[in-house]
Design brief:
- The chain is mainly alpha-helical.
- Among the domains are: 45 residues; 58 residues.
């Protein structure tokens, strides 16, 4: 059960703890069970995490996080048990700040969850707003000249004799001529055009 105290009860809790520590009570939380309707473990947890004035509630610094990670890797038991009380005290001795056990646990376990998520290599699906673009099932044969691929990859053409003997066969699919692909309006030029010049006859000698 979670400890829930009013502001007045928090002040009473704090005053009693100061007095019990002053007189050197070995188990102050057992004494407080006679005042508050919680057991000693619950009151101890509440004190260490929320009410102790020595606890720094500021976010952990990076150097504290590194210390926590190294400490756990060196001091956790073989079965994975972590003594948070000892870690808390060593962190205080190292940097002078008391941290709540909850803060230490939250840092460690959140880091482990992130690591497990990365190790699992989970690939999330994209949002459901993707639209399927229909593709045409019709295929086209394209001939590109000059051929740059190997001869075995060139398209097979019907025999030239069959083309001459069956000019009206519509099933024969021939590639367009090269000049058609290059220029649709200019016929291939076999030789340069001749310029027409006026023929000049040589002059004959006057005595002929």
């Amino acid at each position: 059960m979670k400890v829930v105290l009013s502001e007045e009860e928090k002040k009473m809790f704090l005053n009693h703890m100061v007095e019990l520590k002053r007189v050197g009570t070995r188990d102050p939380f057992a004494k407080l069970t006679k005042i508050f309707a919680y057991n000693a473990r619950q009151l101890c947890h509440y004190w260490r995490n929320y009410l102790d004035p020595e606890v720094c509630q500021h976010n952990l610094y990076d150097y504290e996080k590194r210390f926590i990670d190294n400490w756990i890797s060196l001091n956790r038991t073989e079965d994975g048990t972590i003594c948070w009380k000892n870690l808390r005290q060593d962190l205080k001795n190292q940097f002078g700040l008391y941290r709540s056990e909850n803060m230490l646990k939250n840092h460690w376990y959140s880091k482990q969850r992130c690591k497990r998520g990365t190790d699992n290599d989970v690939i999330l699906s994209s949002p459901s707003n993707i639209t399927n673009i229909p593709t045409s099932t019709r295929t086209f044969t394209t001939y590109n000249y000059p051929f740059t691929s190997s001869p075995q990859n060139r398209p097979s053409l019907p025999a030239i004799s069959y083309i001459f003997n069956n000019p009206s066969d519509s099933t024969v699919d021939l590639p367009r001529p090269l000049f058609y692909q290059q220029n649709l309006y200019v016929l291939p030029t076999l030789q340069p055009p001749l310029t027409q010049e006026k023929l000049k006859w040589p002059k004959l000698p006057s005595n002929v």
